[in-house]
Amino acid sequence: MCSSFLKWVVLASSILLVGGVQARELRVCADPNNLPFSNEAGEGFENKLVSLIAEELGAEVRYTWWAQRRGFLRNTLKAEVCDLVPGLPANLEGVRTTAPYYRSSYVFVTRADGPGVQSFNDPVLRQAKIGVHLIGDDGSNTPPAHALGRRGIVENVRGFMIYGDYSDPNPPARILDALAKREIDVAIVWGPLGGYFAQHESEPLKVTPVRPIFDGPQLPMVFDISMAVRKEDEALRQEIDAALIRRRADVDAILTAYHVPRLDGGLKQAGRVP
Question: How many other CB atoms sit within 10 Å of the CB of residue 155?
């Protein structure tokens, strides 16, 4: 009797009662201050996509907010405080990912009256003041920072912590604020961030996908992005995959509204990347 009762309590804790009718709960972990992806006000494109998924599953969304930095997955999805993370690289080890729902790349962002940059081999990068993001508490280098370092372009490069001060809104946008204020001449950032914030700066900015998109075999600049569940949650992964396929037009419309640079030519709309 005791064992059966405890099982019932565990089951009941994952169900919402709405008007006396049992409603499914979709538990999501996301960053509370990370536009254009997510924030606590539900203004990011990942928030919008989660709402689509919940609608398709007939579920109510419950968020657990956690800064998406080192330890994020360990303390959220893998700790079973949630069942879904809406934006991670496809085929990431340690989790089970859906088919990718978009592909993007790092981008060069410049002022409209600034230097045109075509590739990491462009001579202008040896003279321009360049901003790049640094990742993690230890300031690890992003792929663009490595690409510049491989070419000996280091003295004119300024690092911006992607996490920044979480008491301020949108910490990753500081690099584009610096570009608009003419503190730097070129920002090299992850595409969705560059595409979104370029539309919100007072200074007109232009966004160009970086080239080459593979700077040597070990340094990709382009990534497929998926949703992720725990490795054992194959049934949930299949449900989310099916929902993304059914709502493909809505997914694309949301990504377009947020100015996400897309390199989706190689993605299969109803399956995984070949």
Answer: 6
Nearest-angstrom CA–CA distance, 178 and 196: 15
Q: For the segment 133-151, what is each residue's pLDDT rounded down to a tens digit?
A: 988 655 478 999 999 999 9
- What's the CA gap between 130 and 150, in Å, rounded? 15
pTM beyond cutoff 0.70: yes
Averaged over 229-234, what is the pLDDT? Answer: 97
* Nearby residues of 274 by Cβ (< 8 Å), 6 or more positions away: 266, 268
Cβ contacts of 213 within 8 Å, gap of 6 or more: 105, 220, 221, 222, 263
| 74 Cβ contact partners less than 8 Å away, ≥ 6 residues apart | none
Q: How many angstroms separate the CA atoms of 30 and 37, rounded? A: 9
Per the prediction, the chain carries an average pLDDT of: 88
